[in-house]
Amino acid sequence: MPIYQPKGGYDANFSTLYEAIANNRTDEYEVVPRSNGIAIGMSMFDGDPQALLAKESKLKEVSVTLKKHMRDVIDTGDNRNDLYVTLTGGDFSQDSKKTAKNIEVKVTALLDTGAPMECLMRGSGEQSLTGSSYRSTVYYHTNNPPYNETIKLIIPTEADKFERSHLLFMFYHCR
Can you tell me the distance from the alpha carbon of 172 to that of 175, in angstroms, rounded to the nearest whole number? Predict the structure, then answer.
C-alpha cells in the first residue's frame, strides 16, 4: 500500500486526506517521494472480545476500542458514560502579521472550583492516557485549520461532579 500526502505538501488538507483517497480525488493527494509503502495484515475475529483475548495468544497485546454508539439492548453491567466532543476547525484572523498563525487549541476539563478533572481520554486500551487537558494538532501558517479531532470525555459516575464541571477552550499562537 503506498503512502500518500496532500498534494504540494500543504498540511492544512491532511485531516481530510483519507476522504480524498477514499473518493479517488487524485488531484488532492500524491505518493510520498522515496517511500516504498506500508504493509498491513488483518484478521477477522467473531465473538466476545474478552474471551478472544484470553483464548488467542497472538492477541495478547491488542487494545479493544469500544464503539461510539450503544447497542439497542443495554446489559445490566454496562457503564458507558462517554461524551464525545469534536474540534472541526477554526477561522482565525491574520491581524497585521505577514503570514498566518500557528494555532493550538487546549481543552481542559474543570470543576466549578477550578480544580482539574481527570476525564479526557486519549487513545484506547491499556496504553490510553486519561488527563485533565487535551492539546490539538498545530497546522503551520494556516488561518483555517481543519482539526477534525475527537476527544472522549468519561463522564464521572458522581452526578454532582458532572453537573459542576465545564470545558475550557484556550487558543494559543505557537511560534
Answer: 10
